[in-house]
Design goal:
globular, four-stranded antiparallel sheet, alpha+beta
Length: 419
């Protein structure tokens, strides 16, 4: 291991440089007088990215705004290029995205910086990982603490120091971290495909209002005569409802799972969760594999299928549904509630004009369509296989994210050297 010395940024390899970031950057934002009004956005035109489209270190191209050609042409300094780094400078400052692909000509709104290296001494992908490191997060923290309106300025980057190995080592560090990120993205994409596939198979096989000689009329529409409609409560062995029981939070313990952490069939932003004590968790009804978490409001009807880790405390605005497996498989109930039929049936029993929610008494009465035994037996292995594959991928994603989080500070401080 090479010798490390004390610097302004802590211990760094003796053969690394410590350079002001301003000497190495091209950083541009939309000029104030060129700011755009919402009235100037159009249905078709050139893509414009604001902070809302920067999520999970990438651009959500499906939701970008559109502006006329003349407004795009007037600011060539912020026309995007492949490998650009985007960073929010207003509101939630310091969110970043790496433009690894540029699907169309695009620019940025006034709340976003376009950042590029302008020196051969600096690798662009190394720079991106520097912005994800604790070095840069300290700057963000200093700009947000005590600020009524947090904001990043170009001058904030001028004197900030960046640890700089030689270009070859920068490239190796960037390659290592990007390969982990690429694997994570591939697994996340696979999981999204599996999620969509399960829902497509379900809706192709479970249909209402197909009129035939053997169809019968029910409260939710026409169904085959050998199918039946029951109430949700008749499909459950347990309905856990801790709403209204605001727990005392502690610094360490069991994560408290509330509605804001359930979205799109996943648990999100786990690092932001509060914790309850081990004693409270031990005294409560614990989650089991194949339980279904449903949000009761804000938003209503988001779902999570529990596999793998069951160490959560169901907290605010969530129900836990435990299926009676003698009546139907939990995977089927999850997909029914997630189908357009299930969502409608839940929503119509909801209440609230501003924030829609559903009371436990109404949730119990939501209708569930149960097909004949032959259909259930045919579909269940398919759904179980899909759910298990997703969980295997979730576990690997979690491991890779932990590896990346652990490696990042050690690589950028030279604690670990890559030859």
């Amino acid at each position: 291991m090479s010798e490390r010395i004390e610097t302004e940024l802590g211990l760094l390899p003796k053969d690394w440089d410590l350079v002001p970031l301003g000497d190495l950057l091209y950083i541009k934002g939309r000029i104030g007088w060129k700011g755009l009004k919402k009235s100037e956005y159009i249905q078709e035109g050139y893509a414009i990215i604001n902070g809302e489209q920067i999520k999970n270190d990438e651009v959500n191209w499906a939701t970008v705004g559109r502006i006329p050609k003349e407004r795009y042409d007037e600011s060539p300094e912020i026309m995007l290029q492949q490998d650009d780094i985007l960073m929010t400078k207003d509101g939630t400052i310091g969110k970043i995205a790496y433009v690894d692909k540029l699907p169309e000509p695009a620019t940025v709104a006034s709340g976003v910086f376009v950042i590029r290296q302008n020196s051969e001494k600096l690798n662009q992908r190394y720079l991106y990982n520097y912005f994800r490191s604790h070095f840069f997060k300290h700057l963000i923290k200093s700009r947000t603490e005590g600020s009524v309106i947090p904001h990043l300025y170009q001058r904030d980057f001028k004197e900030m120091l960046i640890p700089l190995p030689n270009p070859k080592e920068q490239e190796t560090i960037a390659d290592t971290l990007f390969s982990i990120s690429r694997k994570i993205k591939n697994l996340e994409s696979t999981n999204e495909t599996l999620y969509n596939l399960a829902n497509i198979i379900f809706e192709e096989n479970i249909k209402l209002d197909n009129e035939s000689d053997n169809s019968i009329s029910t409260e939710i529409g026409l169904i085959p005569s050998n199918w039946q409609v029951v109430k949700l409560i008749d499909c459950l062995t347990i309905l856990i409802d801790n709403r209204g029981k605001t727990p005392v939070y502690v610094d360490e313990g069991i994560p408290a799972l509330s509605a804001k952490f359930v979205k799109g069939g996943e648990i999100i932003r786990q690092h932001q969760m509060n914790y309850v004590s081990q004693e409270l968790w031990e005294a409560s009804e614990k989650l089991q594999e194949r339980d279904i978490i449903m949000t009761s409001e804000a938003p209503l009807g988001e779902l999570y299928f529990v596999l793998g880790n069951t160490n959560y405390y169901p907290a605010q605005r969530v129900y836990t549904l435990r299926t009676d497996k003698a009546i139907l498989p939990p995977e089927y109930l999850y997909l029914w509630l997630n189908s357009r039929y299930g969502k409608y049936l839940v929503s119509r029993r909801g209440s609230g004009s501003t924030v829609q929610g559903i009371k436990q008494s109404e949730l119990k009465l939501v209708e569930v369509l149960i097909p004949d035994e032959k259909t259930i037996e045919r579909l269940t292995p398919i759904f179980q296989d899909i759910f298990k594959k997703r969980q295997i991928n979730f576990d690997e994603i979690k491991t890779l994210k932990h590896l990346r989080k652990t490696l990042l500070p050690r690589l950028l401080s030279g604690e670990i050297r890559l030859d």
